[in-house]
Amino acid sequence: MADFLLEIIPEPTAGTASVLVFEKKGKHAFIKGTGEDNLLCGTCKNVLCENIMRGQVQNLVFKCPNCDSFNLVK
To answer: What distance in Å separates the CA atoms of residue 34 and residue 53, rounded to the nearest whole number?
Structure first.
């Protein structure tokens, strides 16, 4: 299993990126799978995608429900 810190970016301009936002504050994963990799918030290390396969998630921005940082998945 490998953990990957995501790149922190400024809040994207409306309409320029797909941004996933968790309505509930706290330490929550957006996606849970059966793979071997975790994607972590680049600021607080909250697990945003848990047990996924490498390359399964691409070209998305996650707004961390724990610290409100914008995390880019390339």
So the answer is: 8
Over 90: is that where the pLDDT of 54 sits?
no
Q: State the Cα–Cα distance between residues 6 and 61, nearest whole angstrom.
A: 10
For residue 59 the two structure tokens come to: 């070209």
Instruction: Round to whole Å and give the CA distance between 51 and 31.
Output: 8
* Cα–Cα distance, 55 to 66 (Å, whole number): 24
pLDDT confidence of residue 23: 87
Residue 19, token pair as written in the block: 């941004």
Beta bridge partner(s), residue 50: 32
pTM: 0.91
Q: Which amino acid is at 59?
A: N
